[in-house]
Write a structure and sequence with these properties.
Blueprint (H helix, E strand, L loop, with lengths): L3 E7 L3 H12 L7 E5 L2 E7 L6 E6 L13 E9 L2 H10 L4 E4 L7 E6 L4 E7 L3 H8 L14
Parallel strand pairs: 1-4, 5-8
Antiparallel strand pairs: 1-5, 2-3, 3-4, 6-7, 7-8
């Protein structure tokens, strides 16, 4: 569990979800950012401060973050020392890969965990410096699952 660093909700309205978290739990947010992956434009934001972060993603219909049916808990995010090895490990444990960002130049993958009705996201630790620069510039490095014990 030491590599767990965020929980993600996909939402139809990022600003509304941010306001609801602010008023109910005193959560502080970074500024939402627009991004693109493949054919999908989406918006993303993380809480301020350290891990575990809350992530909100507002994605279009048909995207990996489609919230057109309603907002939902989507995934738990973990850093991994090797995305390829970690993805094989999860698939071998019966957690099939649902989506990979690798074909789009992003080293992350979502694996379905039916027992919780959501996904596990593995993010290659090589992306961590960029994450920290964008979302938590004063933050210390976070641990990753060691895929080569």
């Amino acid at each position: 569990m030491t590599a767990f660093y965020h929980v993600c909700f996909v939402v139809p309205d990022v600003e509304k979800a941010m306001r609801d978290f602010e008023s109910s739990a005193g959560v502080e947010w970074n500024e939402p950012q627009a991004a693109r992956l493949g054919d999908w434009d989406y918006r993303i934001v993380f809480t301020k401060g350290g891990a575990p972060f809350i992530e909100l993603i507002e994605g279009p219909p048909g995207s990996p973050w489609d919230a057109s049916a309603d907002a939902r808990f989507d995934h738990l995010g973990y850093w991994t020392s090797s995305l390829e090895t970690g993805a094989r490990r999860l698939a071998g444990q019966g957690l099939p890969e649902e989506f990979s960002g690798c074909p789009y130049g992003r080293a992350f993958a979502y694996h379905r965990m039916d027992s919780i009705g959501a996904r596990i996201e593995l993010v290659d630790a090589s992306r961590q410096p960029q994450f920290l620069e964008t979302w938590n510039p004063a933050g210390a490095p976070m641990p990753a699952i060691d895929e080569h014990p």
